[in-house]
Amino acid sequence: MARKLYYVDLNGLAESIRYILHYSGQTFEDIQYDHTKWPIQEIKDWLPYGQFPLYEEGGKTLNQSAAIGRYLSVQANLLPEDAWEQAELDATVLSIHDFWSRVAVYIKEKDPDKRAAIKKEVLEERIDYYFSRFEKELKKNNGHFGKKLSWADFVLVGFVEATNLCFDIELQKQFPTVNALINKVQSLPGVKEYIAKRKVYRV
Ligand SMILES: N[C@@H](CCC(=O)N[C@@H](CS)C(=O)NCC(=O)O)C(=O)O
After folding, report:
1. CATH number, domain at 62?
2. Is residue 62 part of a domain?
3. Which positions fall inside the GST N-terminal domain (predicted)?
4. Within a domain: residue 140?
5. 139 CA to middle of ligand 1, Å?
6. In a shared domain, residues 66 and 104
């Protein structure tokens, strides 16, 4: 079955999806548009809500990064069977997205003063607020958000990498359990080989 992932040539919302696909050994076409040329109007018009990522499988398409990650996590054995545990992971993923929402505003903002103010807020308040909580949650569960490795772990790693790229930081340095999870996910079979050959992202 032909699988395709459409995004720009950055980690952003797509990297955790790429990781899950590589981890589960799925062959897929990783279609990446040059972000410096975005918006490409004909592509934007073709996307269901004008935004990436878009996942295609067997001629059907799915938008929203969380829905794509959750769907792929079934084949990758990254979703627990218990409905309550699934919902807990959904809540975690949405909290990670809540953290990211301010970074997304920073990326879109053009005014330099406003950008500087958002950056300050993210670096001085938001990272600590969210990541002290993620750290606590991971510690409680032996280094994972659920009872074992799950898609929420991949989502966190993807957003840490994207935030690091955006602000040229290594935010995990302040959070040892988050750091350990990143090292673990980056060393997983499939993910490790992918990282070794992926291009360096530049914003
Ligand atoms: N909630 C959506 C957000 C999608 C989103 O913001 N995509 C950005 C890239 S990270 C985008 O396509 N931006 C280009 C645009 O809006 O024109 C998701 O998680 O997939």
Report:
1. 3.40.30.10
2. yes
3. 1-80
4. yes
5. 31
6. no
Q: Which residues contact 74 (CB under 8 A, 6 or more apart)?
A: none
Regarding whether 70 and 58 lie in a shared domain, the answer is yes
Only one residue has tokens 């670096």, namely 123
Nearest protein CA to atom 13 of ligand 1, as residue: 51
**Ligand 1 atom with least separation from CA of 65:** 20
Assigned domain for 60 exists: yes
Pairing of β 29-33 and β 3-8: parallel
Q: How far does the centroid of ligand 1 lie from the alpha carbon of residue 39, in Å?
A: 12
Question: ∠112-127-52 over CA atoms, to 5°?
Answer: 65
- Asked whether 2 and 29 are in contact (CB, 8 A), the reply is yes
* Interval 97-148: pLDDT, tens: 999 999 999 999 999 999 999 999 999 999 999 999 999 999 999 999 999 9
Beta carbons of 193 and 55 less than 8 angstroms apart: no
